[in-house]
Amino acid sequence: MKKLVAIAALASLPLLSGTPDAKRDPTAIGGRKVSSGVNFYSLEKELALGKQLAEEVRKQARLVEDPLVAEYVNRLGQNLARNSDVTFPVTFNLIESEEIGAFTLPGGFIYVNTATLKLSDNESELASVIAHELGHAAARHATRQASTQQVLDIAGIPAMIFGGIGGYALRQLGTPLAFFHFSRDFETEADFLGLQYLWKAGYDPESSVNMFERVEAMERRRPGAVSQLFRTHPMTSDRIAKTQRDIGQILPNRPEYVINTSDYEEIRTRLLDLLEVQKAKDATAPQPPTLRRPNELEFDDRPTPRQ
Ligand SMILES: [Zn+2]
Fold this sequence. Notes:
- This protein is mostly helical.
- It has one domain.
- The chain has a three-stranded mixed beta sheet.
- A hairpin with a 3-residue loop joins strand 2 and strand 3.
- The radius of gyration is 20 Å and the shape is globular.
- It starts with a helix and ends in a 23-residue tail after the last helix.
- Zinc ion (ZN) binds next to helix 6 and helix 9.
- The site of zinc ion has 6 residues, from helix 6 and helix 9.
């Protein structure tokens, strides 16, 4: 009987970390701990791992290096980070990709695909995506999830991120995906935290609902337009309804919100132009031979991937 009671008590423990009440108080952002929970990685280890993975991303992806665009994304991200629970330095980069997506490496290396910026209609909507990723970073979801799933092999992660490169990546959805394929609870928590960061930074929290709806509509219209990783953030009506509820219940009203800036409009136009130029260049450039890095040879014994 006693045992049963103990199990029942365990089952009713909140699944999310930290004190639930503090997490519901956006005015306490900055002084609250949102990353507690089982984690085999010290913060130092997490940062080192993230750095190593970020280096792989830099090698394998095409990052937008235009200084004006990169500076804008970083500025937007850092402003949100200052209004978040993140306790370590975070970085923000745009990845040139036609797939809608965003992801966060351990240690706060945050990436947003250019297609996501393109899909957004204003700065507040773009900020909502970054704020969600900051939620994952602040709560240290990557390493906490890896800790519960005992992920030891991180070698396949960069390959897995860039499904297009080499084409074998989707086959690699083994343990490394644990770093990115967050549990439902972690996704819900990132939504919840991100929404508060968006609000704290002065943006219109309704923008997150608008952005969810945009992604959902795009997914319906063009299946495959949303990256596999991003689809692990299910755009269900439940999720939208919960966000809507949270806006009403936990966010104090502000007399006005930032929805858009002229910087956003300028950068968006500039980026679209740059992408057009790049596309034209790619179309005329001779196709480079497919190079395999030595560390990819291990995948050679696999069946030829579908193109
Ligand atoms: Zn997420």
